[in-house]
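re: ur question from the group chat, yeah i did fold both. here u go
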Amino acid sequence: MKCPFCHETDNRVIDSRLSKDSNMIRRRRECSDCNRRFTTYERVEEMMPLVVKKDGRRESYDRIKIINGLKRACEKRPVSINTIEAIADRIERNLQERGEKEIPSSVIGETLMRELHDTDQVAYVRFASVYRSFKDINEFMVELEELIKERKSMPATNSTRPRRE
């Protein structure tokens, strides 16, 4: 590990401990050359599948794209960043559990839509309008009518509250 200050590779670990969520090891290190201390984080490299786009291109899975899409859909909505990150975590876990080397982007998109549907219906409609590329107001209305039907069939309690984490 290179020292971020002097770039020397000779350093020693002073302290190691698990992170709060036990997914990483936090290590305090001291450089043997400049004696400055710095922190590194170590975690398991998770093999994510390649994402197959609609046009057949393949690209690496990018968590940042998922989070940015969720943030855009949830903008000015009562959805916390913790909830957005929890959704991204569930998406990643789902992809890893599938064990596939490649996955169509449509699978990720539909999973995101289900998560948003259960979290915040306005964010869901926003995401759906971009993801499904609504061509006109009629397609948009069909989606809204489906939501209204579902809502009417739900029990009266908690039907308007978004899911929180």
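okk and heres the other one u asked abt
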Amino acid sequence: MAKTAADCTTMADIRENIDRVDRALMALFAERWSFIGRAAEIKAGLDIPADVPERVREVRDNAHRNAEVLGLDGAFYEEIWARLIDRAIAHEKALLGEK
């Protein structure tokens, strides 16, 4: 059963809810990934390269800011997003036939 952290009274509760949140995060990552493939399709039709530095900066800045709004370490989550972005760009490059 979904609980808040404050509602958890045992380590089993904590573990169950961390696993639940992890599954939800993976579902969100899968949804995000679906947009990456679609972006490549749209970019191909518009002759836009996979790597658009201005957008990369914007997404990283958003991650940093969104993390801080939630009381998280902005720099840490920006680093995680940098890895996500790098993987997305590599995937788009492959789909677009870029080197």
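fwiw on the second one: Residues 9-96 form a domain with the Chorismate Mutase Domain, subunit A fold (CATH 1.20.59.10). The chain has a mean pLDDT of 97. idk if thats what u expected
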